[in-house]
Specification:
Low-confidence stretches: 1-21
Mean pLDDT: 83
Order of helices and strands: HHEHEHEHEEH
Number of strands: 5
Number of helices: 6
Largest sheet: 5 strands, mixed
Strand content: 15-25%
Shape: globular
Length: 166
């Protein structure tokens, strides 16, 4: 009986997911992203025409350390492709994010979501959660968590999307 109740709750949770956007046009207005020092950051609409690997992270997230190493490597490998990697920080205190970045530098875009509206629109439920978005602005893959054994699949998907013509 408990399994049925859990399954029913899960069905309700996912069937009522009205906020989740499947296209950048749907989320751009809600995503008031800033730099870590509070200045307005790029608008997501500016990234149309590129493959976007959008990663939501926080300093307290152990798997985020490993995901940053992967994202740095992916950025280097894809430097000649139309791929943009953007990591969206969800820490309450900017100082925590800055300390994380001191220990784990990033060679990709780092922004903050101070209002957490962007995270709400994307329905982020785990750290890290990544969204791989094609050149037309369609979300093609959502990946929760980070396990090193999954990097080849993620890399292959980004490469495939980078080679597609919009």
């Amino acid at each position: 009986m408990k399994k049925i109740k859990f399954l029913w709750a899960a069905i309700l949770l996912f069937s009522n997911s009205s906020l989740f956007a499947e296209h950048l046009d749907q989320v751009s207005a809600a995503c008031g992203l800033t730099t870590l020092d509070g200045k307005p950051a790029l608008e997501l609409q500016e990234l149309k025409g590129k493959v976007v690997y959008m990663d939501f992270w926080a300093s307290w997230c152990p798997p985020c350390v490993k995901s940053f190493a992967f994202l740095n490597q992916l950025k280097q490998e894809m430097k000649d492709q139309d791929v943009h990697i953007i990591a969206v920080n969800l820490d309450e205190k900017v100082k925590d994010a800055q300390e994380f970045l001191t220990k784990h530098p990033a060679n990709f875009s780092i922004v903050a979501d101070p209002s957490k509206e962007c995270a709400k629109v994307f329905e982020v439920m785990a750290m890290p959660t990544s969204y791989i978005i094609d050149k037309k602005g369609n979300i093609r893959h959502v990946h929760q968590g980070f396990r090193p054994g999954e990097t080849e699949e993620l890399r292959a998907l980004v490469t495939q999307l980078a080679n597609e013509h919009p």
